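Worked problem 6 (solution included).
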Amino acid sequence: MARLLSKSMHITAHALHDRPAALFQPVPPADRKAMLERLPPTAAHAAELASGKWKLLVSSTSWTADEDFSLLLSALVGYCARATADKSRPLPYILAVITGKGPLKAQYVSQIAALSQAGRLSHASVVTAWLSAEEYAGLLGVADLGVSLHMSSSGVDLPMKVVDMFGAGLPVVGWGEYEAWPELVREGENGRGFGSKEELERMLVELFGGDGEELKVLKRGALEEGKKRWDEEWDRVAGKEVFHIVQ
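Solution. The predicted structure is:
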């Protein structure tokens, strides 16, 4: 954005990035099972999620055409097919929780039901939920992986949902085919970017399969990123500018 303002309008600007609200915090490992038992979308499966036998994937959306959730559904279908076909490489069951309200929700709920009925989500459950702010923050804090399907029309805006996920210490995979994405997500450090359903499917297999070391690396990176809050960002970028003006 700063580059575009400079090029098109000759305005000198400094990027003041969004930071998570205080509500979004990591959930200590010792408290994770209790939180899973309290949250409506996870309560029935808290034991499986807490043991690591299942993985918890979370995404949020306003259910509009700006986000193509068929990408995630297709990736989950591919993941399930791999889990069924290759028994030599066991893959954990995925509970995918999608939060939010919007005009296209009924359309996607219908798609999810059809895929489940056809047996194409044999190794995953996809549930939708509408949560309070506190419940949503708790869900991010206990999840294993966040997914962002935000597709920037301008190429220079960043999804606040990813900022909130980092605040909760949650690593992220997201649509990364726009210029500003690397400002927020550092590849292989706190998340990964994909540009197709096939890439997302492969990431789910890589992050949830095997020894889990890559997911642990991304988790550490997300926790570190989440430590950066509004006061620090303001002081780093805007505070010094205000000081210069006063002087």
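Discussion: Residues 242-247 have pLDDT under 50 and may be disordered.
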